[in-house]
Amino acid sequence: MPLESLLRTLGEHLQADDHEHGYLLLDPMLRETLEEPDLLAHGCEVFPIPIDRPQLSQSQWPRLVKLRPAAVEILLASISLAMSEQSSAELESEEGFVVGGWLRSAAEPRVLVHHLQDLMRPSEPRVGRRYLRLADRRVLEWIWPVLSPLQRQQWLGPISQWWVLNRRNELALHAITDAAQGSPHPDPELLSAAQWTRLYDCELAQQILRGWQSFAGALPTDYLPQAERALSSVRSLGVTQPADIVLMSAYQLQIHPQLCEHPRVVELVRAAQSSDVPLRDALAEIPDPEGWDRIRHELTTGSRPYPLA
């Protein structure tokens, strides 16, 4: 979506209710781009979200910015930054994302800060308090699909709309549907073991997505489920090294969703696992591109595999 269209659409949503305010969520853990003096000069208010972690300085705390409706330049700058920081896999890998998203809420800043602070410090069983970087929009995008309706309601709390920019440069809305509306549950629903496991996979999933985007350009609308399936398929072969998981996932996303079931691919993976041959070198035995094209054809048509060499 063009920058001008994103600005118009997001601006309309953030200002659609006179009783609610628009907010910008920032994560300056690795770098600072939207400087506080500039935000203040445009009439915005900046509120740090304290995170009590010894490895974080106050300058690395997430920040909530209360947007002034007339400060179109700040909204434009934040959208432009969100687009640019995901335009390069290398840049993203080194510097991460600063723009966490845009929120709409009737709550005052101190209430939102307290709510977000609680969200970012969940307790993991047998581990204790963790820092969950929800100001990083990739984390919210990854965990949201597996949250229960009650968890979504509790996570949003006083936030009526939580907008993020996805990897297709499209606005994605996180909100509670009318069917899920109800009175807040008095006891927070804790993250399950499976949800914590998924969170631990977030960085690996982002590596897969960065690699995919570097050779595919525009990602499909279902890029997240596809990446999740690739990760699961590769692990089903017993692949455990992160670099090998990313490599095999890249092949699957390029070739076919059932790539990890192809006999020749399984054979080469098993050979690499039983020897000192790196997986990349083992897969290089398949001629490129004709060998991979043949595997794609066999998987697509269901035809019988035959020798590639």
Would you kindly provide a written description of the structure presented here, covering whatever features stand out?
The chain is α+β, with helices and mostly antiparallel strands. The chain folds into 2 domains: about 190 residues, no CATH class; about 100 residues, no CATH class. The chain is built from 14 helices and 8 strands. The strands form 2 sheets. A 6-stranded antiparallel β-sheet has the order 2-3-1-4-7-8, sandwiched between helices. Strands 5-6 form a two-stranded antiparallel ribbon. A hairpin with a 5-residue loop joins strand 7 and strand 8. The model has no long low-confidence stretch (mean pLDDT about 95).
